């Protein structure tokens, strides 16, 4: 059994401590996608983070492995190592150049969404005015497909996400998004989006972040409730886990350089409040997920699908394409 966490965040700093990754591994996680930046981060910061994370992974090969295929994930699990790849939250680090997608793929980025909460020249954020996927955005979706990178629609505007799913030639995922029907927050996804994702063959991965789960101290049962909603709507083959745990580390300042306005990215009008910061499920919730999923009526085999096999299926299909490109790099 492979447990797959589709999205987690360390400090976006080259010296970030990987102890939280060890906690995830100890809790039974075999693979995690680590965020390395997004729309609010300049390319200089993103590249510094990628270089730092890669160096940390390379310095401890008995514990970590940077993967580019599902076979790599399976082998890492067999070896007792944590499989890792990276993700980007937004298209700004692509510098409006579709060619940048393949470059990031070669550096270990295996997953991307094209807008983080706000609109850019590529796509719409979920907390901004709806326009739909731009012409350049269509080129970016094609580049993501061509590079064998997972096309993600978390943080993306509803109309734009539907455009992306219609444009993609590969399955699309929501790496850390929850049903709007259960918690009506702008970051959560509607039944229409969930159905469209399933129609691509994709997976909606449930977040454990308090704002989106609707509980101040979310636990395994809360995550399972959201999983059950998606499974009942579109089938158990289209739901996974991306707990979106954001690990803070005192002494590391990962604030994006230059002008940075948190109120722009997380607007009060959308329900965000600095006085009420989010809470996260602890990594150890992974040990409780199988039992929680059984409590909402799932069999052991269905729980395995949710906890990893669904995302393995999608990654196997999507990641298989660029292996010649990656090996030639």
TrEMBL record:
Q: Which PROSITE patterns match?
A: RENAL_DIPEPTIDASE_2
A Pfam family it matches: Peptidase_M19
GO molecular function terms noted in the UniProt entry? metallodipeptidase activity
What is one process in the GO biological process aspect for this record? proteolysis
Identify the InterPro entries for this entry. Metal_Hydrolase, Pept_M19
Q: Identify this protein by name.
A: Peptidase M19
Q: Which organism is it from?
A: Rugamonas aquatica
């Amino acid at each position: 059994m492979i447990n797959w966490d589709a999205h987690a965040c360390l400090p976006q700093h080259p010296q970030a401590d990987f102890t939280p990754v060890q906690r995830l591994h100890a809790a039974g996680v075999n693979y995690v996608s680590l965020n390395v930046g997004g729309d609010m981060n300049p390319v200089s910061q993103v590249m510094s983070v990628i270089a730092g994370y890669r160096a940390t992974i390379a310095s401890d090969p008995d514990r970590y492995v940077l993967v580019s295929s599902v076979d790599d994930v399976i082998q890492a699990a067999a070896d007792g190592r944590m499989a890792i790849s990276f993700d980007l939250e937004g298209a700004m680090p692509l510098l409006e150049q579709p060619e940048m997608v393949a470059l990031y793929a070669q550096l270990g980025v295996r997953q991307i969404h094209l807008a983080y909460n706000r609109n850019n020249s590529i796509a719409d954020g979920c907390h901004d005015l709806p326009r739909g996927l731009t012409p350049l955005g269509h080129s970016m979706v094609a580049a993501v497909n061509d590079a064998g990178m997972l096309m993600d629609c978390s943080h993306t505007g509803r109309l734009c996400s539907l455009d992306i799913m219609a444009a993609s030639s590969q399955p699309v995922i929501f790496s850390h998004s929850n049903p709007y029907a259960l918690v009506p927050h702008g970051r959560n996804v509607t039944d229409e989006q969930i159905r469209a994702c399933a129609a691509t063959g994709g997976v909606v991965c449930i977040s454990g972040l308090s704002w989106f789960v609707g509980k101040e101290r979310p636990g395994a049962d809360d995550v399972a409730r959201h999983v059950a909603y998606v499974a009942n709507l579109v089938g158990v083959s289209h739901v996974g886990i991306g707990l979106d745990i954001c690990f803070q580390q005192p002494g590391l300042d990962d604030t994006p350089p230059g002008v940075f306005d948190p109120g722009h990215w997380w607007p009060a009008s959308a329900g965000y409040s600095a006085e009420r910061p989010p809470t996260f499920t602890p990594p150890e919730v992974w040990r409780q997920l199988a039992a929680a999923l059984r409590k909402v009526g799932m069999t052991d085999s269905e729980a395995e699908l949710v906890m990893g096999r669904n995302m393995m299926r999608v990654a196997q299909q999507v990641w298989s394409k660029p292996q010649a490109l990656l090996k030639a790099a």
